[in-house]
């Protein structure tokens, strides 16, 4: 029995401005509310009954920013755009800010765009964004919904790096779980292969000090952790989608010159992993430990 | 479809996008120099290896990812807007079959129901009709304009459908009525003429495609007639020219002495035809010609790379081999291994001929009035409507119905929201009676749909008396032999 994919992912927390909304007889005040991701779940900490708020919102009530975020998280849980747009490596930083998200929202009409995050008038940051340059006008309803959905994803990315990784892991885990209604694995396979390759290549490059362009990756569908071999100057790797979720998203793809290929157990902040010292070698079981920023070797298992 | 399957082709495209993203490209939006992913997407889409919808989705994913790393949300949102040429939701992404993970990405495609304009119609487009052309072969002298310079219209052929009609024309300044130090005007002669038929009905005649004012000797253009002359009329008088002269055009098609042959050709995959077209482009335009910021030879090398690594064609596919062989003979590196040898017989006769005569500048100077109406091919109708030959090439006039040319944009611009992906459904070549082959270097089409000028290179052989115009759709070819009876030069006044 393998550990949950999220077991080695550090929890993430972010504060967002949550507007005043009427929820039944309660009124939540405007303020900085906490959004937390841990244990594979996103939680609106300051909203004790987010589910009830969602029901009320569906009945025509207002929707707070926190609850909208939680809803958006679920809506994007198998969204391949997350992997197409999200980060690839520690050095790969998305320049998504709240100013940017608010500006996007300000030029999208949520009334026409359908359900989405709460709108709030925000002045765009000077020099960062020119709403008039965005193609919002004369858009079809479908286009507006697509734009609203894209803006929603930008909002999730704006929560911060930890959330970006967690959301990426969530999507990879969803597709790794196998067939599901409305989820065509065969059609998505090229996108998933690209997602794997785009994240393995920089990791392998730092592992072996090689050109990431020499890394050739494919999805491993069979049982086991996969294979990593050096063929001439090409590193050929076959890894399961679970690697993206359990290893890469946890930030432990490469630990002390080892390529981690699977997470075996986690007793936070320590984990037992299966890792390769070099391509073609049998994987060893290592203990690694999270120091709050990085994973480092804790000793052999 | 790709030999390796659509999945392999799309996977290649996505891996290429990942590699390009690592290079942290700075994209400035649609422009004259497409990015690498757009070029590869174009190649794979035109080779029928991936659908246009898939190609566009990968391109927009890549552009959006780049945009988010630059902090510019514009492209990330703009990429959701489908280009005008992508007319409908690809069949592979119909609501019943598409994966949920892409449903929002393809939502953009749902808005329009138009057929992609690049699509290869299997039948002539609705509303299209077979054009009919008749030769004219007469010159209308024009009255003197500025400084006594007078021009002439050499009327080559009348081509018409039920909805449009045009006379193909070569025009020039023929002389000057008085001695003057004034140089010949830089622009084309312009003198308004009209037409009247045997029933006394008048038609407005307006010149199309006058060309740029570059001081050339001849201008190739079309004289559009409005309204289109109906069936049943016997002749048209075009004029007035100098001293009120008219030229009479017999509208009834005469018995044509030429020949038209239709024959099957070995079926070729779209990718193979794409490479053959690339070879034609290399020969006609030259390897060093500009292809959106890079040389055409570099662009063609990328094309080969994309089609072979994308699993569309094997590296030893004959189409790849002959293009590599052409590159070797042109002295350019298209990826032929150092020890690779492509036998001469692997290259088509047309390429050998153009290799041998590509630098010729011995074309006869003259105009030939002929007309040939081709049977339907590639779902379109064509009429050949005269030709003007010059030292460095020839201009062939064609009226098309059900087909719109897109030039070589496919190889230059790549797939973008504003650059049409083009089409490679038809291949045009010609061979003159002296055995010299000719390729289409450029197509020019003006505001009037259907009228096309094809610039053929190298020039016609000086001894050529006829020309075979060969159109192929990859499974069938139509060959029309037209006479090159040069019109006598007009004696200066």
How would you portray this structure in words?
The complex is a heterodimer of chains A (301) and B (493). Chain A has helices spanning 50-58, 65-75, 80-85, 98-106, 110-113, 141-157, 161-176, 185-208, 241-248; strands at 12-18, 21-23, 26-28, 31-38, 41-44, 215-219, 227-231, 234-239, 254-255, 258-267, 270-276, 284-290, 295-300. Chain A is of the alpha+beta class and 301 residues long. Chain A has a domain at 12-169. In chain A, the strands form four sheets. A five-stranded antiparallel sheet of chain A has the order 9-10-11-12-13. Chain A has a three-stranded antiparallel sheet with strand order 1-4-5, with helices on one face. Chain A has a three-stranded mixed sheet with strand order 6-8-7. Residues 20-25 and 110-133 of chain A have low confidence and may be disordered. Residues 88-127 and 412-421 of chain B have low confidence and may be disordered. The N and C termini of chain B lie far apart (62 Å). Chain B has a domain at 5-110. In chain B, strand 14 (380-390) and strand 15 (393-401) form a beta hairpin. Chain B has 493 residues and is of the alpha+beta class. In chain B, strands 9, 12, 13, 14, 15, 16, 17, 18, 19 and 20 form a ten-stranded antiparallel sheet that branches. An eight-stranded antiparallel sheet of chain B has the order 1-2-3-6-5-4-7-8, with no helix packed on it. Chains A and B meet through helix 3, helix 4, helix 6 and helix 8 of A and helix 1, helix 3 and helix 4 of B.
């Amino acid at each position: 029995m393998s550990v949950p994919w999220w077991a080695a992912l550090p929890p993430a927390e972010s504060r967002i401005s949550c507007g005043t909304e009427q929820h039944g007889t309660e009124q939540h005040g405007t303020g900085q509310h906490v959004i937390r991701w841990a244990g594979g779940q996103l939680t609106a900490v300051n909203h004790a009954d987010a589910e009830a708020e969602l029901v009320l919102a569906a009945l025509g009530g207002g929707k707070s920013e926190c609850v909208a975020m939680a809803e958006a998280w679920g809506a994007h849980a198998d969204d391949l755009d997350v992997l197409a747009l999200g980060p690839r490596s520690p050095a790969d930083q998305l320049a998504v800010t709240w100013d940017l998200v608010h500006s996007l929202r300000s030029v999208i009409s949520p009334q026409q765009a359908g359900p989405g995050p709460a709108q709030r008038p925000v002045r765009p940051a000077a020099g960062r964004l020119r709403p008039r340059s965005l193609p919002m006008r004369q858009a079809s309803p479908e286009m507006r919904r697509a734009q609203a959905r894209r803006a929603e994803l930008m909002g999730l990315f704006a929560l911060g790096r930890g959330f970006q990784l967690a959301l990426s892991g969530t999507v990879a885990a969803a597709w790794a779980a196998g067939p599901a209604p409305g989820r065509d694995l065969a059609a998505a396979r090229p996108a998933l292969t690209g997602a794997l390759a785009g994240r393995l290549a920089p990791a392998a490059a730092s592992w072996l000090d090689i050109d990431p362009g020499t890394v050739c990756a494919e999805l491993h569908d069979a049982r086991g952790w996969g294979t990593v071999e050096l063929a001439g100057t090409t590193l050929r790797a076959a890894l399961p989608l679970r690697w993206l979720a359990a290893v890469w998203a946890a930030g432990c793809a490469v630990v002390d010159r080892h390529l981690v290929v699977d997470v075996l157990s986690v007793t936070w902040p320590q984990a037992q992993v299966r890792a390769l010292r070099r391509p073609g070698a049998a994987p060893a079981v290592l203990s690694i430990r999270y120091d709050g920023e990085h994973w480092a070797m804790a000793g052999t298992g | 479809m790709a030999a390796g399957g659509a999945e392999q082709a799309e996977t290649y495209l996505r891996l290429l996008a990942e590699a390009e993203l690592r290079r942290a490209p700075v994209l400035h939006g649609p422009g004259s120099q497409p990015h690498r992913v757009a070029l590869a997407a174009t190649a794979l889409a035109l080779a029928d290896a991936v659908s246009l919808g898939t190609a566009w989705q990968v391109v927009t994913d890549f552009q959006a990812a780049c945009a988010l790393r630059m902090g510019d949300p514009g492209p990330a949102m703009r990429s959701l807007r489908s280009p005008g040429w992508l007319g409908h939701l690809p069949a592979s992404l119909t609501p019943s079959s598409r994966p949920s993970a892409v449903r929002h990405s393809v939502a953009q495609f749902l808005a329009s129901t138009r057929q992609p304009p690049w699509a290869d119609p299997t039948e002539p487009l609705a509303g299209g009709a077979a054009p009919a052309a008749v030769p004219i072969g007469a010159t209308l002298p024009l009255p003197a304009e500025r400084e006594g310079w007078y021009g002439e219209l050499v009327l080559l052929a009348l081509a018409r459908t039920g909805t449009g009609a045009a006379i193909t024309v070569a025009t020039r300044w023929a002389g000057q009525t008085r001695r003057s130090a004034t140089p010949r005007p830089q622009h084309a002669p312009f003198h308004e003429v009209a037409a009247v038929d045997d029933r006394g009905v008048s038609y407005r005649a307006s010149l199309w495609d006058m060309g740029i004012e570059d001081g050339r000797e001849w201008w190739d253009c079309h004289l559009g007639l409005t309204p289109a002359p109906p069936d049943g009329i016997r002749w048209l008088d075009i004029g007035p020219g100098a001293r009120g002269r008219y030229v009479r055009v017999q509208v009834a098609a005469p018995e044509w002495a030429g020949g038209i042959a239709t024959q099957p050709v070995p079926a070729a995959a779209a990718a193979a035809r794409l490479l053959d077209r690339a070879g034609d482009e290399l020969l006609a335009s030259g390897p060093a010609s500009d292809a959106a910021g890079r040389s055409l030879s570099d662009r063609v090398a990328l094309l080969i790379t994309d089609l072979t690594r994308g699993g569309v064609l094997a590296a030893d596919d004959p189409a790849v081999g002959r293009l590599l062989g052409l590159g070797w003979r042109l002295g350019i590196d298209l990826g032929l291994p150092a020890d690779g040898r492509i036998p001469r017989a692997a290259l088509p006769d047309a390429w050998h001929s153009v290799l041998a005569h590509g630098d010729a500048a011995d074309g006869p100077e003259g105009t030939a009035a002929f007309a040939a109406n081709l049977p339907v091919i590639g779902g379109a109708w064509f009429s050949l409507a005269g030709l003007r030959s010059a030292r460095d090439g020839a201009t062939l006039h064609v009226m098309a119905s059900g087909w719109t040319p897109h030039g070589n944009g496919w190889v230059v611009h790549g797939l973008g929201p504003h650059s049409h992906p083009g089409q490679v459904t038809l291949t045009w070549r010609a061979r003159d009676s002296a055995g010299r082959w000719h390729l289409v270097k450029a197509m020019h089409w003006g505001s009037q749909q259907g009228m096309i000028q094809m610039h053929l290179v190298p020039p016609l052989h000086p001894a050529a008396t006829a020309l075979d115009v060969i159109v192929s759709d990859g499974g069938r070819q139509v060959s029309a032999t037209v006479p090159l009876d040069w019109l006598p030069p007009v004696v200066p006044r």
